[in-house]
Amino acid sequence: xxxxxxxxxxxxxxxxxxxxxxxxxxxxxxxxxxxxxxxxxxxxxxxxxxxxxxxxxxxxxxxxxxxxxxxxxxxxxxxxxxxxxxxxxxxxxxxxxxxxxxxxxxxxxxxxxxxxxxxxxxxxxxxxxxxxxxxxxxxxxxxxxxxxxxxxxxxxxxxxxxxxxxxxxxxxxxxxxxxxxxxxxxxxxxxxxxxxxxxxxxxxxxxxxxxxxxxxxxxxxxxxxxxxxxxxxxxxxxxxxxxxxxxxxxxxxxxxxxxxxxxxxxxxxxxxxxxxxxxxxxxxxxxxxxxxxxxxxxxxxxxxxxxxxxxxxxxxxxxxxxxxxxxxxxxxxxxxxxxxxxxxxxxxxxxxxxxxx
Length: 357
Prior knowledge:
acyltransferase, phosphate:acyl-[acyl carrier protein] acyltransferase activity, phospholipid metabolism
């Protein structure tokens, strides 16, 4: 049975979202036990008012809550008994295979990194998320989505490694994942110096690196992993979310403009429902803090119970696939290969410098 630790107090609406989301998840997944972490009395009251399978729920008390606007370092220092930290502690202690929180992103990342540490050889964890694709049977993993706004070429290469290993661990039947580097063009001469250096590292690595990819190719099933720094990745993610919301509003407005459009909307209703279901952002809720020695999933703070349920599902599938153990094993080999590439480039650079008159 898979055990997940849930920060029940995190998020904009805390218990009014996390509890019904957890119950909906338990009804879908029978082989799961949830450790609901938070205010014991409040949790008991919230669970009492529902038809809850209590045999598969444990309440873990925590006396503090990290605010959504609280400074990460202050939360790390002053909130050692917060529901967020206690949930992550369950993963460290081996009581749970993954932790899920809708709380403060910065505080969650700082706490998770402090408690769990990073995989050997990985300098920084990244925020990763599976994105929809034009192929209904395919999802594209994109990282980093905001944890590291300024990265070196080596760190971007590390993101490529941990992203590739995650996809490989969760979908071994699909072979070696295709890795693309997000850039302003597909040519290897384009991009910043850091991107150009990353391109060289990945080209000579043992990854299945297909080259640069532009933003409009992310959803076209061209790659399995898209690598970017957190600055670019976060802007792209927020732009996508805003574009989907804008288009949904425009479609709704057009169909309600006049009686003829309303009649057309009735005829188009099945197609519109299908499109809405496919692009429902709640289905893609649940970002992965990748590179840690433990599975931590970040739910959107403003999601509803359906979105939180999907975040729990993301944690469940990662825990079920034993992705962490597979990632750690694969990362060691891939990083060793990258180190050889860097050493060879240093030798070539030195030889070139010596031979220059």
